[in-house]
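Service request form, structural biology core

Requester: graduate student, group of Dr. S.
Request type: structure prediction, single chain
Budget code: on file
Notes: please return the result as structure tokens.

Sequence provided:
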Amino acid sequence: MSTKAQTIYNIVERIAPKYCAEEWDNVGLMVGRYNKDISRVLISLEFNGEVLKEALQKDIDLVITHHPLIFNALKNIRYETPQGRYVYELIKNDIDLYSCHTNLDSSVDGLNQHIAMKLGLKDIAVLDIMGRESYKKLVVFVPKGYEEIVRDAMGNAGAGYIGNYSHCTFMTGGTGTFLPHEGTNPLLGEVGKLEKADEYRIETIVPDRLLKKVISAMLKVHPYEEVAYDIYPLENKGNPYGIGRIGYSDDEYNPFEYALKVKEALNLKEVKIGGDMNKRIKKVAVVNGSGGSYVSKAYYAGADVLVTGDVTYHQCQDAKALGLAVIDAGHYGTEKHFVRFMAEYLRKAAIEEKLDFEVIENEADINPFVTY
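Core staff response, request fulfilled:
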């Protein structure tokens, strides 16, 4: 058994919508085709020679990475270059490659949010807002006696979130009419006769990224052969998305104490500490990956410390001058968690939607640095 690649990509794009990606980024399908049958999926931070070897050994159909193999438009594919060789091997061995990069970093429930939660931060907000989710109002008409099952199906699929409340709906009763024609199989009434039915109008709010999922869940449990539902655009301001998160730690720390907390939470062997070494840390900014350029943004947002990777000498000096502590946990150290995060997300979706594909976490060591 297998699942179409397009179905898996749609699931990924619920948590990593393409509109959340930076303009310079390249996300989505790198190599392959949307109608491919997928049985085994390998999740890896990036694609390189070690990951290719692992994919071949494990008979993988699809590799999903965080870092894109292809950033810029290809002018040629030369087999003697690493990128050209990887593209050639993927095509030769019929392996799809799909990437979700800054769209997953920035999204509402994406990787930045995940890292902030692993650090135990409270009252988490977006550090650098890029935009806000758009919403639709979904209205469906349901016969009396089926209102609860339809309402719950939509809520369980992600509809009805308003702030920290879920399953928010509004129902009104009324009378629906319909006239079944030849070839129909109505739940109520008879072919050729106008029927009146006690019905409920159920309305709820749905983020665009979950609209297809919610409609599908609703249709699966709705008893009518032909379901009447409406979709309305909304001007409501949705949840913000963007790079980084900022929130509050559970206690106050000095930089060395908080560095130990970061090492433990992110399962790291080492971190670098810089900036203001006398700072008392309570408010924490987090940018997974390369976030040294967010020193000023973190400071002006009121952070006491910036936890990120790839902080340069001069960025650390700027942090010190501003009175901001910096913990450089490494690019790899802050993003290796993508593998488990995406794998668990896809496994859960496969179970909930009764899809047949196996998710495998990359085991090859792809950290390009060795510390002595």
